[in-house]
């Protein structure tokens, strides 16, 4: 395919070297709709080379002390932080997110991921028990597993890729990572810093390409004993099926249909701005975003009026403009998918109060072909509607009334997902009571997205298998052994 402009061309990173690929796929700038990058279309051959490099590097890397590995992770964090602005600009252009979000969330969190696991790896303890009557002492030891296959999504590219790479290599594993083919640039940029950080060749290998080719080859490879995946539930089902013959260890962080429950004693001055943010941050392209808002009937009208007014204040446009709140969606196909949900809601009798199809969207000349959508609020939608049951993954949220605590818990739990929820109330007993009964891996009360990385992260039901965090990631990326000594 001929292109009028010089394009950025990425290469796989295997065994400490950049390696060209025999075929490439186009990557688009979501804010303009133009091709700006070519990404390797890797397959079995490239994955095989990457796995071999990772296997070859494993003996030396796994023999390093936790302190040695920690120092290297900290150095890599420093190097990314030094280039934070370049990484943020690249992430914004590649993914469509606002430059402000990339600067303040994505890249700082990627830096923090390395620093966090560089620290936590130094503080794990093992177990020990005594059996005096038998003259025995038992203790456990943990060792890295081997080559980890890491597959990360397009919504928070470097943020979620490093959330996997950092604990994997901190524990002494080597990795073969496959970022999304739609957002590969910051992973490629990170690879340029690995040698300077002191990461030995083969410890981190990055193979670019699609899920059906590169991802499938990685998941099916017999020398990759564990796979960590963040993405859709449908893809996770495929990964589970393909990895089953090899009895691989899986960590699956999947989708969500996250409720916000707002009781009539909620502080709306805090609740409304936070719920607008939880609905539309990163264009609603975060697995933790709120897409179902249940409001107690006594405050429903007031909440709806104020919420819509606040949502209309969010500016949509060129992501490189620091005053913009909502950037571009990831692709033309995804934009059409999100729009389809709004049309279905209208066909079912729901009301669109602002956003898609209601308010005009004014874009700068250079962004006319970009994949933009206004924050959209839907009311009068039924619980069985696809907009209340399926993950939309865009700037769309539904607001519905409820009467009783018992009713809203039942309705909030009435989806196949169980990733996150928020509860807004001034009643301490109620927030504890409701939090315990919600089928969600994470429950925030009177806040959203406040995270302690020491604690487990993950979902129930169709939202995933396993947890991530200091202790959980350590246990996933290591093999435990019980040793008994008779004396």
Please state the average pLDDT score: 97
What strand line-up does the widest sheet have?
Answer: 15-16-17-14-13-19-20
Number of helical segments with 4 or more residues = 15
Task: Note the gap between the termini.
Answer: 72 Å
Strand content: 15-25%
Main beta sheet, described?
7 strands, mixed
- Please give the share of residues in helix: 25-40%
Quick one: overall form?
Answer: globular
Could you tell me the number of beta strands? Answer: 23
Alpha-beta content class: alpha/beta
Poorly predicted spans: none
Q: Work out the radius of gyration.
A: 23 Å
Distinctive features:
487 residues; globular; 7-stranded mixed beta sheet; 6-stranded mixed beta sheet; 15 helices; 22% strand; alpha/beta; 23 strands
Structure explained in plain terms:
By secondary structure, the protein is an alpha/beta fold. The chain is built from 15 helices and 23 strands. The protein has helices at 44-63, 66-82, 84-95, 99-120, 157-170, 185-197, 211-220, 233-243, 268-280, 297-312, 332-347, 386-389, 405-412, 428-437, 470-476, and strands at 8-9, 12-14, 17-19, 24-29, 34-40, 128-131, 136-144, 147-151, 174-178, 204-206, 226-230, 249-253, 258-262, 290-296, 351-354, 376-379, 396-402, 417-418, 420-424, 442-445, 460-461, 464-465, 478-486. The strands form six sheets. It has a seven-stranded mixed beta sheet, with helices on both faces. The chain has a six-stranded mixed beta sheet with strand order 10-9-8-11-12-22, with helices on both faces. A three-stranded mixed beta sheet has the order 1-5-4, covered by helices on one side.
